[in-house]
Fold this sequence. Notes:
Largest sheet: 4 strands, antiparallel
CATH topology: Alpha-Beta Plaits
Strand order of the largest sheet: 1-2-3-4
Number of helices: 2
Strand content: over 45%
Number of domains: 1
Amino acid sequence: MLSVTLKTKSAERGVKGAVLRGKSPRLLSVDAIDIEAPLGKDLLYLRNKDVPGVIGQVGTILGKHNINIGDFSLGRDETSGGQIREAIAVVHVDSAVSEAVLLELRKMDAVKEARAIRLF
């Protein structure tokens, strides 16, 4: 397992990952939120409120822009304390996610962050 922490003056972010079976890179956690997400060429990273309807809205937006989902992995902060929990999604898609799609995703009430990631 590889763990990376990035500290700035305003925030600290941490990720953990591993390679399984010799050829399958996986993201295992982001900021202490557990997730098991395969890593591929084009990814969509979302950080959102853990409320109903988010997955459906994301799928609808991606479908409208003809972006096919190969894998949709979820993780959420399991601590509640009476507050709305935070969730993350890593969506492996078959094509690049444009800035127009990101802008539309960011307009969703529950979405706090939406980023396109291209690996390899």
